[in-house]
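note to self — DONT lose this again. spent like an hour looking for the file last time. sequence + predicted structure for the chain T wanted, 690 res
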Amino acid sequence: MNLLPSAPTAVVPVPAAVAVSSPSAPVTAAAAAALLLVPGWLLARSWGARGVTAVGSAPSLTLGVLGTATLLAQRTGQRWEPTALLTGWPMLLLVSACAVGLALRRLPLPVTITSRDTRGTDTLDRDRLPRRERLLLLAAITLAGGLTAIPTALGTGSWDNPAQASDAVFHLSATAYVRETGTASFLGGLAPMYGGTAVYYPTGWHAVAALLPGDVITGANLLVVVLAALVWPLGVAALLREVLPGAGSVLAVGTALSGSVVSPLLLLTSVWPYGMSVVMLPGALALLVRAVRSGKVGARERTAAWILALGACLGVLIAHGAAVFNLAVLGLPVVVAAGVPAWRSVWRRGVGARVAIAASGALLLLLLAGGAWTMRRPLAAVFNYPRAAGNIWETLFAVVTDHPLLATFTPWMPGNALVFALAVWGAAAWRRDMRVRAWAVGTGISLLLLLLASGPAWPLRALAGPWYTQRARIMPLLTLGVLVLAAFGIQQAQRRWGAAKGAPASALGRGLTLMRQHVPATLLVISLLAAPGWRWGLRAELLEAIHDPERISYGAMLSAGELDFIRRIGGALPDDAVVLGDPSNGSAYLWSVAGTKVLYPSRPRPSTAELRWLGENADQIETDPRVCEILNRYGVEYYYSDDAEPDGLTGGVRKPLWGEALARVPRSALEEVDSQNSATLWRITACDAE
């Protein structure tokens, strides 16, 4: 193997052609948006959804198709790469699903079957919005997206600046492996991250990120923006469109307020698969609300609506398995509330009907038990995850102001308190409105889970286990419920204050009259003033907390110039090079940033006993022959060190989670290749064959 020159100035730079051929950030962002929206929109339209509901639910439907395609591609040996979108399983599944949807809805049947339900309308779709209201809704989505995208971009710094968080390191490396192996299945697609062992892991995020043009880091950063600034407001718009009986300015302002919350953006700073499932949840819930809406509709339309809703739920589950609990918390009350009248009617038909209901319930419990048994190991790991108790008062403050429940950020006052107040007002109508009652129940359950996760270790705290007992993972459920209830609150405010008669002579009177004529718009302006620009600075701060080495919340792994060093050595090392290093000192980024393989691509303890042993004994390289034996088996010839203090502040080195010996490999066993500041690349000489 060729030895790199030891002088830094002699290192061969990355060829200029590589940089020239990289697509621009707008191209990558557009590709991400098109990939998430277009397939799902075609599917939604084919199965009967219309308008903003079809667009807002599209990402979850797309992921349902892509997730299924990753499994089929793995089983048939098809590589997961961009060309597969047009020639492989994704296209075949999409065309087939669209064809089935069109056939179910349009082909004539020998007998027309109609629903027994005679309440409501004769269609599941809302009336088409007038042009003015469509423009208002578009402006609301643009406002919510813009006030999220711009501070997110500012906090990120540059699009090729990698996120420095433990979860992000894992997901960046995993995406790089998906690109290399061509396998993105949730059943073993991330085997390289687990020492070659095929395990279940939600790979929806990685499957999408691996298909984007350009490098891994840029694709990941722009996918965050697309999810937070486009998918989230579109999903909330679709949900409110289905929940609200009316439309107009209430729908527009309710949608705009989706840009005022920070909890989804907080998740997307590092826990990307779970964050993806959360931002896709509103779109899936929109289809669920549509499917259970009462109306004099035919069985075919009802069936198509349910299949479409279940397909969207599948996409959310493919993004992350914990979504099944999110769907249960917010979706189950909606289904139960809509089904109560029908269940009462069936129950009154006699013993046979009651037995059928009981048998259906027993079957459902058996299916849930079977699923829980199949996933018992991941579930056990989640429920048993150790988590220290939080602070109840801090949690309540966060609930009222919508403040991040992770790390430490500037406490903006009064934060999003206006939206919380509107939600409380909206929830007050729960006695007379079944729809409000369903969302009040789901929001109340979310609040209870959040408080359980904050409290001391007692038996009921296990109910928060599906979310790793982490408040930041539960908070978006409460956020989504609050947004729906706030929309009801805006309606209540419009009914109470919206009537304005006469034309007062004074300027103050004219101003008050104008405000009463436009109550939703007035509330929107007040929210923007109370939380300036919807806490623009806080949004930038959230992203700086994982991208700026001087502001990273839990400690930097890359110093200011270390990223350039990694790119330089990665462009000069042989293609088959493998590097040993402590993953907490920046070495793990060699794989996702520079395409150079590393033995430890993420911070947690590796799953294989051999690599765990090596991490605990790497400093015995000159005395224990087993160290060289393992290194030679994995083809490791290089070592990455960073001599900075492992404080996560001064030199981009965090305290290791395990394997302290990885930082203590003796220099007598090495030969320096290149260095910059405290970081050095070495060639391992102690294992050379004699």
